[in-house]
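yo

u said u wanted the structure for the complex thing, so here. seqs first:
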Amino acid sequence: MTTTELPFAKGHGTENDFVLLSDLDGTLDVSADLVRALCDRRAGIGGDGLLRVARAGEHWFMDYRNADGSIAEMCGNGVRVFARYLFEEGLVPLGPLTVATRAGLRGVVLAEDSVTVDMGPPAFGPESVAVLVGVEYAGAAVSMGNPHLVCPVDRPLAELDLTRAPVFDAGVFPDGVNVEFVVPAGPLPGVDLHVAMRVHERGVGETRSCGTGACAVAADALRRAGRDRGTVAVDVPGGRVTVTLDEVTCLLTGPAVIVARGVLDPARAGAAVPAPDR
Amino acid sequence: MTTTELPFAKGHGTENDFVLLSDLDGTLDVSADLVRALCDRRAGIGGDGLLRVARAGEHWFMDYRNADGSIAEMCGNGVRVFARYLFEEGLVPLGPLTVATRAGLRGVVLAEDSVTVDMGPPAFGPESVAVLVGVEYAGAAVSMGNPHLVCPVDRPLAELDLTRAPVFDAGVFPDGVNVEFVVPAGPLPGVDLHVAMRVHERGVGETRSCGTGACAVAADALRRAGRDRGTVAVDVPGGRVTVTLDEVTCLLTGPAVIVARGVLDPARAGAAVPAPDR
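structre next:
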């Protein structure tokens, strides 16, 4: 390739996947066009978002962008993949780590097979309903910084049609809402509760995993079980995460994997195909 | 990473995208599981298929696998990306090249901005019809080694719903068929005809590009224009290819790009996520 090539990696946490760009000297200009080109799943590398790996003073800074090029404050699965990348590159050891994000500093614990991130405490909101293909599901609002509506359902999750967005009460959720549908799952050693969920993320559609959604679901499940703390295994379509709530915060634990690393030429990603003029 | 890491590249031709694995010494055991893991768009690298780059006697051999792990004989866009990879790696110069595939030897011409592959001659079959969401479209069977049904339509392509497979006459197409919908496109210098198409590939669904489909569409368009040779620009959703028919064969020309290259750990692709037990 040419001298314009950039080092990159691709990784995922429960199939929430990211393109990582190393920018240790802080010189990389990551435009929205570049993000869209690299996150394009056919003409680029492909990912739900892009993580620029940079420094901010004494901390590592996760510069997170959505696949559409917009800037996002935080991404729970993104922080876990970001931390795994730092370890893979030999930049940090296993153990505790603090990552700077646009939403503030986040505590992380890197282990051999998992990464844990401190997601902050949940805030419970009012009861509300989601309407999916004409069927109404009762649920409860939970904020993890972003808004969630957690709806326990009494039918198999596989039967739900999440190809269209659930209808919600815009009076309760003026900025839109991520909607989780939840069922109990079989007993599992080492946790207090075990549930399975599917999620429709606002502005995106159904996704394979949602870190804040898993935390909201776990908090709601514990509350419905009459508890204010405990550990919940949450199965998402892309795998399994574990959420632990205590008096002060919510910890999200799960796998985070770097699948590949290499170099890419940004001029070739996405921009290489002449646009048809129809 | 570990000592098990494999060199790989990712590339595409009009957004028909591939994971390439270098196997110059012919020692790589590419299982169907590995193909599925690497072609997984979230837990792996992501691609429509995998190209193992190997030697077969005096020729380069394209070992092509579909994303589901099955073996395929040929892929027109795959050969073009394969040839571009050989050039990028410094293994062949620009100019003519012969690539071995399971369907036999293919002539290729590598140029700076495009790759041309000899796809062999079309064979015209009977008229037939495709039924899409209750609407019948008349078309003609064209074989490029694999079966196509080319249907000129008189409505904007964007209005077609290709989320479901077109219904076809199983008497004419006992092994299924790839169905192309075609409209005329604006005048373009340097070509005899210019059309735009969308394609539903059998067993796959709508795709961004189909090399044999573009050839079938070009052959059909020339025949309908009363010609048996000529050059046709074919716009596919992923870009533009050019097809030239002469007395003996059909040449497919278009962009082919290597976007990234690096190393991956096959043990981490796809297999890293514990399966939820719901």
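Chain A touches chain B through 47 residues (CB under 8 Å). The longest helix of chain A spans residues 211-224.
cya
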